[in-house]
Amino acid sequence: MFFFDSHLDLAWNAIEWNRDLTQSSHEIRRMERERGQTFKARGGNTVSLPDLGKGKVGIVVATLLARVVQEQRSPSFCRYDHMEAAQAAAMGQLAWYEAMERRGLFRWIRAKTDLEISINDWSNPSASSQTPIGMILSMEGADPILDPSELEMWFARGLRIIGPAHYGVSPYAHGTATLGGLFPKGPELLQKMEKVGIILDVTHLADQAFDEAMALYQGPVLASHHNCRALVDDQRQLTDDQILKLIGRGAVIGAAMDAWMLVPGWQRGQSTVESTGVGLCHVADHIDHICQLAGNVNHVGIGSDLDGGFGKEQSPGDLDTIADLGKLSDILHQRGYRSSDLKAIAHGNWVRFFRQNLA
Ligand SMILES: [Zn+2]
C-alpha cells in the first residue's frame, strides 16, 4: 500500500536549507551544518527522497513557499521585503522541481493522465526508491503572485493548488495567527483561480478569510495540512463547523504531524517529545475525529508537513523518518479501522479527490 502526502516543502528545504534530498535523512542529519541548526532545532531531518521511497510515499503535494514579511526576523525563513523578491524565490524553487524532474526523480503531475501513471507506478509491489515520486505543485501563501492576471502563466508552469495565505498576512488574505478576511485583491485571485482551474487550499486562512473564501470560490477545495481545534485549541486548527463545511464541499483534509498541532499546550522551545509523549497515536486521534464528524473515512488523508520548519525534535516520537508512516496505519488498524479504511486514508481519498478535480 502506498502513501500520498498532501504537504511537503521539498524545494524550500533543498534551497533555503541547502539540503541534498537525494541523500537519506540519516545522511543529511550527519552533516556538520545540520547539527549546528538552532532555528526550532531543525537538526533532525525526517524527509528525503530515499526515505519517501522506502516508506512508499509515492505521491506528494510539494510547495512553493516564499512570503512577504516586512520585519525580517530570520533572513532565511522564506521571508522577503517585497513581492518581486518572493516571486523570484518561488521561481527558483520551481526551477529545482524542474531539475529534479529532468533527473527522473519526480513525475510532475500536471494532468489526470500523469496522476494515473503515478498511481500505476506505486500500486506495483516492485515500486522502490528508484520509482519517481509523483508530485503535484502547490503554493503556500500567494505572496509570489504579483497580480491575479499572472495565474495563466503559473498554471502553464505547472501550479495546480494555491493556499492564499501562510502565517501572518499575505497580500491577498489574513493567515494563521491574525484576525481578518480577504484583502481587496483576494476575491479577484479566487475568481481567477476558479477560472484557470487552480484548486483552493484553505489551510492557514484566518477564520474570517476561510468563510469569505469558501463563499466566493466555488471550485474544488482541500485542506492540505490541518488538524482539529476540538483537540488542540488554536486558530491554526479547524473548528468542527469548518470541518463539516469542508466535508459538505467534498474536501479532503490532510492530517499534519507538527507536534504543537497534535497535543494541547505545546510550548515552543520548552515542550519536548518526551515531556508530552507526542506520538502517531495523536495523529490517529485527529484522523478519527474527522471520521467521526463525517460518519465515514472519506474526507481525511495525510498532509504530514514533516519538513515544514521543524525536525525530529517536534515530530511524533515513534516516527524516525517519513518512511515510518506505515506505523500510523497499524495504530488505526488496532482501533478497528478496516483495511479498506486504511487504504482510503493512506492514499485513496486523495487519489479520488485529484481524479475528480485536477484540471
Ligand atoms: Zn504550513
What is the fold-level CATH name, i.e. the topology?
TIM Barrel
End-to-end CA span:
26 Å
**DSSP strand content:** 5-15%
**Principal-axes shape call:** globular
CATH architecture identity: Alpha-Beta Barrel
Low-confidence stretches: none
Give the radius of gyration. 19 Å
Question: Which CATH first-tier class would you pick?
Answer: Alpha Beta
- Fraction of residues in helices? 25-40%
Number of helices in the DSSP assignment: 14
Whole-number total of structural domains: 1
- Along the chain, the helix and strand elements come as EHHHHEEEHEHEHEHEHEHEHHEHH
Question: Mean of the pLDDT scores?
Answer: 94
The largest β sheet comes out as: 7 strands, parallel
Total number of beta strands: 11
Q: What small molecules does this complex bind?
A: zinc ion
The assigned structural class equals alpha/beta
Query: CATH H-level name... which superfamily?
Result: Metal-dependent hydrolases
Chain-wise SSE layout:
Layout: E1 3-8, H1 10-16, H2 25-29, H3 32-35, H4 49-54, E2 57-64, E3 67-68, E4 79-80, H5 83-102, E5 106-108, H6 112-123, E6 133-140, H7 151-156, E7 159-163, H8 186-196, E8 199-201, H9 207-216, E9 221-222, H10 240-248, E10 253-255, H11 273-276, H12 280-294, E11 300-302, H13 326-334, H14 339-357
Parallel strand pairs: 1-2, 2-6, 3-4, 5-6, 6-7, 7-8, 8-9, 10-11
Helix pairs in contact: 1-5, 12-13
Bound molecules: zinc ion.
Residues 140, 204, 225, 305, 308 line the site of zinc ion (ZN).
